[in-house]
Amino acid sequence: MRPTDDFLSKSAHATANKEQRNAVYVHGQRYQEALGIARKQYKNEELAKDRAAYLKWKVTENLDKYLIDFEATLMRRGGRVVWAHDAETARKEILQLISKNGAQRVFKSKSMLSEEIELNSFLRGSSIEVIETDIGEYIVDVAAEAPFHMVNPAMHKTEKEIAGLLNAKIGTSMEADAEGITSDVREIMRSYFSKAAIDVCITGANFLIADSGMVAITENEGNIRMITALANTHIVIAGIDKIIPTLNDIDTFFPLLATYGTGQKITSYNSVIGPKTPDDYDAPAEFIVVLIDNGRTNLLAQPDQRQALSCIKCGACANVCPVYQVIGGHAYGVNNSGPIGAVTQPHEQGLDEFKHLSYASSLCGNCTQICPMKIDLHNHLLRNRRDSVQQGHAKSAEKLMWFSWKKMMLSRKNMNKGASIKNFMLKSFFKTAWGEDREFPKVAEKSFNQIWKESH
Fold it and tell me: Where are the alpha helices (DSSP H) in 176-303?
């Protein structure tokens, strides 16, 4: 099934799923309340956002330099960098690193990039056991689903659904509430950590720090900090867009990510880690960063839309998007759902196949307004639409439709033609796209222009 058809099918199904829509709505309301409180920590929030946006802009415009600086600094500290042009290369490199250690089991932290390159299914297909240590990721992994949201992967599931899933997996009570579920999963995680040696752990990275060759990771559960301390080999997978200039910049980015990601002043655990030093008591003996492109340089080549590489993956744009609130995360069919994914994925995965995502927007501007990195999201969606037309991806029927619409709108005589003609045109071109669950609009018998002339 083509991505466009898959999107339409999933969207229609999600729209009719009242439980899912309610779960997304409730999450959105709670998020707004928490965000309002967390934002009060700033005396000048706009200044903090301007500073962060400038720093990421500087990196994006000089990405080659900062990537080389990061690699050189990390290597001087005793670490190693592996470059991967695409998902397939990344998967093979990671498997080779695991196999070299003779590991049959890896402990993995929450990482949307691992979802992007389909790492779990690949490793399991190569007889490697993968254990997710993030509770949300663990839940969707048990459900054999992709994450629903980049920050809250199991946001769409009720407590009852989660309890049912985990009852079959780890024996969680069917009556367990959120606290009980969390406690049960934590107990399972801790039992893994205490009973089994951790040969290899895989984590993502919130930021890669160019001047120090360090990796910054933020979390609320503490499991990342635990597995990175216990593992013999630590593999970090990160997109080439994760770079920030200096260690001092962390105090700008960590609070913004916490505020806009979860509505916290700061997340519970914030770590800046790198290769083991002689003074370290617990740290991996081997520290490897796999830097992954996978289409990001295609986005970098866009003079305007490259700004989207500044994204810090807080998920705020999805939380306020009216389209996302109706269709949810799975309908998009891509790793990064919501407005930011609608901007980036068409360039990273192919404008011809994924241009439809840029039309999945009301262009209300909520995403642009809330973005802590000041990414011009809704206008980038318009630019994607422009690019898809200029590159010849518009279908002949679509061109004919817009040609007819333009002819109609540029002529008052045509605009005043009878309602029967207009209704016929609407039904001929828009009936299928309008969907079966909505009442199809009916054009009034007279236009406003005609009524005005008659009354004056």
Answer: 178-195, 223-230, 250-262, 296-300
pTM of the predicted protein model: 0.90
What token pair was written down for 131? Answer: 């254990």
DSSP tag of 329: T
| H or E segment and range at residue 126 | none
Domain 20-296 listed as CATH 2.170.270.10:
no
DSSP 8-state assignment for residue 373: T
Pairing of strands 214-219, 269-273: antiparallel
- CA dist 217 and 372 (Å) reads 18
Instruction: State both tokens at 71.
Output: 């690699």
Segments in the chain below pLDDT 50 = none
- CB of 148 within 8 A of CB of 333? no
Q: How far apart are CA 327 and CA 17, in angstroms?
A: 9
Q: Is 448 exposed, middle or buried (0-12, 13-18, 19+ CB in 10 A)?
A: exposed
Contact 73/211 with Cβ under 8 angstroms? yes
Q: Which CATH number fits domain 302-390: 2.60.120.200, 1.10.10.10, 3.40.50.720, 1.10.1060.10?
A: 1.10.1060.10
| Tokens of residue 302, six digits | 């866009």
pLDDT of residue 196: 66
d(CA 348, CA 165): 34
pLDDT digits (tens, 9 = 90+) for 209-240: 999 999 999 999 888 998 999 899 999 999 99
Of the candidates 207, 322, 218, the residue with the CA atom closest to the CA atom of residue 266? 218
